[in-house]
């Protein structure tokens, strides 16, 4: 068995290997920490609802099924999984996003017991109609909880304005209607396809021994049989490069309007570009609209934003966008003022001195962020699933140059592909 | 963490040193401690104004850039409330020397402490006063921030429940302050408040991570030695309110899901030997996925997605929160009442006991893996006169018996139920609910 050593850039080595059944295991030793953290993720998120299963047939399943499945994977024939984790003092959880579903625990003792439990419950399908039906009430409440969240609404509306067809425009949890359509059989089809070990990654971090831990996972996996895995073919609808509509306003009772401005990016030709694009854009945007930028200070002093104003990019091979936004006492005036100013700074570009300062800032943040085991695991997996090699992160952060940063910035921030989403209690805008 | 070294720098001025080699972050936090009172709004506003600039960095933009240049170190100025204490916090985080190297690291440390000192002692002033422009801009921004809590309906419902439950107690004042106090503030009174804060508040400073003696000397020289002696903050015992009748208050807003918040009073003093049992009581009631609330309200009855309990042990108050359909209010309330009664009657399984213990001990050790977590935990005890580090709490938790929990359960009384629900009848379609 080959174990690959990955230096994360700050003198920590990650050990990665692929087991016989295709499961990738990454062990990240952190000396002196009491906590141990495990993340078991499948490359399967809310956007993957049209695919050819391991049965060789094409399936189109209801919106929200990946998230629904996440709830139901916790069911076991002879035990309550949460209870078992609690008994050994481990704290378990799970989440689903657009591109992955992850199961995790953290503990300070009984690591091997907890790890066995994690691998066993995720790898034991146990679905039946009564349980499927019962879950619908809980998920309905989860969806309604988000419906009352204006930040979530403004984001969903923005994605629906940027994307015509791509499922990124749909709510991760689906809709109250779509989840009531989900059947036990469909859950099983998705499970069999996407929870195959060859489609999954296990990340283990804490004060743990590399060889012992890998051997432990291997012996757990050897007890289980899986059908042969293969590359899963996923289908996404054709997505025009244009936006759907320029502006969406939703009426919702809020103390102050919330606004997001989205830029739909050009898609990269090669996945190798993803990480360079992400880091370049992060450095550039921080200079343009981050809290130490001239423009941020101006719009803050003009009372066009509050200090919750922030920005972020989601860089993926099939969908890619940047969002800026936050609360605004006057969203119309903010748009009128901000967009031409943004255009000016994007055109004039970022200068070397500012790039170096921002680079130093992100290096510092990277170092400080490494104290969180959970963040280390989630960051690695999130890059991995999207086809990026996290090992290169620190190198690229250190080396990406002024020219690249400015080219990426101009390419991504296309002012013909902007959509605006506002949540406000006033309707006519 | 093995131990804390506490150094009394001056009367009312203390430095707590948490030496820990494993972190890649060095954390410093300085707390000015005051009783929570009507001046909370001044403190909250000041925390925003101090971020706007210093004597050498006249704008927040320049100040932020100075930190960014210094290996991405970051600072925060904010206020928080623990029990009836209002804390004004200035904190700083920087990457550890073992990663950026000793020479660069020592230089960065000195710069960081200088910047921290500037923020505390030399804010940007004009004619001896905090800048009028910054004060006015931050007044507006604070008002908007206070109003924006309405956007987060769960937070909003919790805040309303606190206001109604504690209508005659200073605990009703939110940590960010009150809208009605903002208007009359000007830069004169804010400057006076700032000077008073520096002169009279008790100071508790913490450093956590890998640091040397010379680092401590720098902190003493640049920061702590500048504080004159002052009175120690007194720990005040909570007055225990007797509840004759449980109040139920419903308010309406445009929500799709009703927000249920119940307040409960506890007679367990934060320094009493029953405190560990109180922590476990909260755990068994609604502290996690093993809890009674989670299992009965969510798993068995599918009434809610989120349901949990939380406690402010310093204030001796607890809250139960749940997001439910409005038509399920009575059912939810009745089930919660039964759970609370069951706990009084000792209907607590051995498994619930052991799960609560294991889970609590796990969170204590997890706190020990975060420098900020350790500091906050220690501070919570310090404020009521019984500081303890998370790892020392482990034994106390292990020794708790079921009888202790029953004692605690009988010291808890429901006070008020607040329900934020939708305005129109029949807006929620319940036909699909289990």
What does this structure look like?
The complex is a heterodimer of chains A (429) and B (434). Chain A has two domains: 3-234, Cytochrome Bc1 Complex, Chain A, domain 1, CATH 3.30.830; 247-424, Metalloenzyme, LuxS/M16 peptidase-like (Cytochrome Bc1 Complex, Chain A, domain 1). Helix content of chain A is 42%, strand content 20%. Chain A contains 15 helices and 15 strands. A seven-stranded mixed beta sheet of chain A has the order 1-2-3-9-4-8-7, with helices on both faces. Chain A has a five-stranded mixed beta sheet with strand order 11-15-12-14-13, with helices on both faces. A three-stranded antiparallel beta sheet of chain A has the order 6-5-10, with no helix packed on it. Chain A starts with a strand and ends in a 5-residue tail after the last strand. By secondary structure, chain B is α+β, with helices and mostly antiparallel strands. In chain B, the strands form three sheets. A six-stranded mixed beta sheet of chain B has the order 1-2-8-3-5-4, sandwiched between helices. Chain B has a five-stranded mixed beta sheet with strand order 9-13-10-12-11. In chain B, strand 1 and strand 2 form a beta hairpin. The longest helix of chain B is centred in the first third of the chain and has 20 residues, at 102-121. Chains A and B meet through helix 2, helix 4, helix 10 and helix 12 of A and helix 2, strand 5, helix 5 and helix 13 of B.
């Amino acid at each position: 068995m080959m174990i690959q050593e990955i230096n994360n850039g700050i003198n920590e080595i990650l050990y990665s290997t692929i087991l016989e059944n295709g499961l990738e295991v990454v062990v990240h030793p952190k000396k002196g920490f009491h906590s141990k953290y495990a993340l078991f993720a499948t490359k399967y998120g809310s956007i993957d609802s049209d695919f050819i299963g391991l049965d060789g047939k094409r399936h189109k399943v209801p919106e929200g099924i990946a998230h629904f499945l996440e709830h139901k994977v916790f069911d076991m024939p002879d035990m309550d999984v949460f209870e078992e984790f609690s008994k050994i003092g481990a704290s378990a959880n799970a989440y689903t996003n657009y591109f992955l579903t992850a199961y995790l625990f953290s503990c300070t003792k009984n690591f091997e017991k907890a790890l066995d439990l994690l691998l066993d419950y995720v790898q034991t399908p146990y679905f039946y109609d009564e349980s499927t039906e019962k879950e619908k009430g809980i998920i309905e409440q989860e969806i309604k909880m988000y419906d009352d969240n204006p930040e979530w609404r403004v984001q969903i509306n923005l994605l629906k304005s940027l994307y015509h067809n791509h499922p990124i425009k749909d709510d991760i949890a689906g809709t109250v209607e779509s989840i009531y359509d989900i059947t036990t059989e469909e859950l099983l089809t998705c499970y069999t396809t996407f929870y195959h070990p060859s489609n999954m990654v296990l990340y283990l971090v804490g004060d743990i021994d590399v060889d012992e831990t890998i051997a432990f996972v291997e012996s757990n996996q050897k007890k289980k049989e899986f059908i042969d895995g293969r590359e899963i073919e996923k289908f996404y609808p054709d997505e025009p490069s244009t936006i759907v509509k320029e502006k969406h306003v939703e009426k919702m009772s809020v103390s102050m309007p919330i606004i997001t401005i989205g830029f739909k990016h050009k898609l990269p030709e090669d996945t190798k570009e993803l990480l360079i694009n992400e880091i370049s854009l992060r450095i550039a945007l921080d200079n343009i609209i981050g809290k130490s930028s001239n423009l941020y200070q101006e719009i803050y002093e003009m009372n066009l934003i509050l200090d919750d104003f922030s920005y972020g990019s989601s860089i993926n091979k099939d969908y890619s966008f940047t969002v800026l936004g936050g609360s605004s006492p006057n969203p119309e005036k903010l748009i009128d003022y901000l967009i031409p100013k943004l255009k000016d700074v994007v055109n004039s570009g970022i200068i070397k001195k500012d790039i170096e300062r921002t680079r130093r800032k992100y290096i510092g943040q990277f170092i400080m962020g490494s104290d969180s085991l959970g963040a280390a695991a989630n960051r690695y997996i999130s890059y991995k699933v999207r086809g990026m090699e996290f090992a290169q992160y620190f190198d690229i952060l250190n080396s990406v140059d002024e020219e690249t940063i400015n080219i990426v910035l101009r390419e991504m921030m296309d002012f013909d592909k902007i959509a605006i989403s506002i949540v406000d209690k006033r309707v006519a805008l | 963490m093995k131990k804390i070294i506490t150094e009394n720098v001056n009367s009312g001025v203390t430095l707590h040193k948490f030496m820990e080699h494993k972190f890649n972050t060095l954390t410093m936090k300085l707390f000015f401690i005051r009783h929570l009172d009507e001046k909370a709004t001044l403190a909250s506003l000041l925390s925003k104004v101090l971020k706007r600039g210093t004597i050498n960095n006249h704008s927040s933009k320049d100040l932020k850039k100075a930190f960014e240049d210094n290996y991405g170190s970051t600072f925060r100025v904010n206020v928080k409330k623990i029990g009836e204490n209002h804390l004004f916090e200035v904190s700083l985080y920087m990457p550890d020397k073992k990663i950026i190297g000793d020479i660069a690291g020592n230089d960065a440390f000195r710069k960081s402490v200088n910047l921290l000192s500037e923020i505390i002692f030399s804010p940007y002033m004009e004619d001896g006063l905090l800048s009028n422009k910054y004060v006015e801009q931050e007044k507006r921004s604070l008002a908007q921030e206070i109003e924006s809590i309405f956007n987060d309906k769960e937070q909003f419902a919790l805040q309303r429940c606190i206001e109604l439950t504690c209508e005659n107690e200073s605990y009703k004042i939110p940590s960010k302050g009150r809208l009605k106090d903002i208007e009359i503030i000007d830069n004169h009174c804010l400057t006076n408040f700032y000077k008073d804060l520096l002169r009279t508040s008790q100071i508790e400073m913490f450093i956590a991570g890998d640091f040397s003696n010379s680092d401590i000397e720098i902190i003493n020289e640049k920061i702590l030695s500048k504080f004159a002696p002052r009175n120690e903050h007194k720990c005040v015992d909570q007055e225990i309110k007797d509840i004759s009748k449980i109040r139920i208050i419903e308010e309406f807003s445009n929500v799709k899901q009703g927000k249920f918040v119940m307040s409960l009073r506890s007679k367990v003093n934060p320094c009493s030997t029953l405190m560990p049992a109180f922590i476990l009581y909260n755990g068994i009631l609604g502290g996690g996925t093993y809890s009674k609330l989670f299992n009965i309200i969510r798993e068995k009855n599918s009434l809610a997605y989120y349901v949990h309990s939380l406690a402010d042990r310093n204030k001796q108050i607890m809250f139960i929160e749940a997001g439910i359909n409005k038509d399920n209010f009575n059912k939810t309330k009745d089930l919660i009442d039964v759970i609370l009664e069951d706990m009084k009657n000792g209907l607590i399984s051995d498994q619930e006991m052991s799960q609560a213990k294991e889970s609590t001990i796990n969170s204590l050790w997890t706190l020990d893996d975060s420098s900020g977590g350790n500091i906050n935990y220690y501070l919570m005890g310090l404020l009521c006169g019984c500081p303890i580090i998370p790892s020392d709490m482990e034994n106390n938790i292990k020794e708790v018996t079921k009888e202790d929990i029953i004692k605690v359960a009988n010291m808890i009384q429901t006070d008020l139920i607040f329900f934020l629900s939708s305005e129109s009848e029949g807006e929620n379609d319940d036909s699909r609910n289990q």
